[in-house]
Write a structure and sequence with these properties.
256 residues, mainly alpha
Length: 256
């Protein structure tokens, strides 16, 4: 490989790893958001399922590792260190394989995941008390924002402990359809209905979530493919540069 090609490969690999470092920071930030945010759909799932909390820690770890790999890739590209480039290539290959395996597991276990999700959300609805717990606040926020009621529909709320033990016709205030008449306009907790015909949204949050996934499926798939292409490009560039470097020159490493 000519000197000009080596120089171009170095700079392309450096830019790639700079993007990789930023991508790792985004993953790290998303993992921290999952762990710390208490007013979102994630908070509801996390309170009801410890597996999602484990997932947030995994994302934090993956994001941190990606940032370290981006740094190592930049270091290996600029100073032409074969051992660093080889380590970087191996780690990138392992991450790509792990992503493919994870994607395959999610695809083939989608029915199991859907059932588990439904069980989690039904448990959240049954245990809802409207007393400003993390899950209660997050679930109220979801229903108000998406304009839905229950997981599959308003009928899910008939299993709620508070509603079942009440002699009055109650419904969650966050379910209230603003286009229908009613007295209570609270953002959370339970409201008393003036009639047996509850003024709530008729659509469940599951169908709203599925519609969002369908409408944004192309974007999600594009992002996944883009990440895979970027990783393959990084592997190719690091391999080409590693083969072009005949001997490591540790004297080029900056001394602090």
């Amino acid at each position: 490989m000519g000197k000009g090609c080596i120089t171009a490969t170095k700079y392309f690999l450096f830019l790639f790893n700079l993007l990789f470092f930023i991508f790792g920071a985004l993953i790290l930030g998303f993992g921290l958001w999952m762990l710390l945010d208490n007013q979102s759909f994630i908070a509801v799932l996390q309170e009801a399922s410890t597996s999602l909390k484990v997932c947030s820690y995994i994302l934090i770890g993956v994001g941190s590792l990606t940032m370290v790999m981006g740094f190592l890739g930049c270091l290996g590209a600029v100073y032409e260190l074969r051992c660093v480039l080889g380590l970087y290539f191996t780690c990138l290959l392992l991450i790509l394989i792990a992503q493919v395996v994870a994607g395959a597991l999610i695809y083939f276990q989608r029915d199991v995941l859907k059932t588990e999700m439904s069980n989690i959300m039904n448990k959240v609805i049954v245990d809802y008390t409207g007393q400003n717990r993390t899950t209660d606040v997050a679930w109220d926020y979801i229903q108000r924002t998406i304009k839905c009621c229950g997981w599959t529909g308003p009928g899910n709320w008939s299993e709620n402990t508070v509603i079942r033990n009440s002699s009055q016709p109650l419904y969650p205030c966050s379910c209230r359809n603003s286009s229908q008449p009613g007295v209570d306009v609270k953002n959370g907790g339970f409201c008393e209905s003036l009639s047996t015909d509850l003024p709530v949204y008729s659509t469940g949050c599951a169908s709203s979530a599925e519609k969002w996934l369908v409408s944004n499926g192309g974007v999600i798939l594009g992002v996944c493919v883009g990440v895979a292409v970027i990783e393959l490009l990084g592997m190719i560039l690091s391999l080409c540069l590693c083969r072009s470097v005949h001997q490591e020159e540790y004297t080029k490493v900056p001394k602090y």
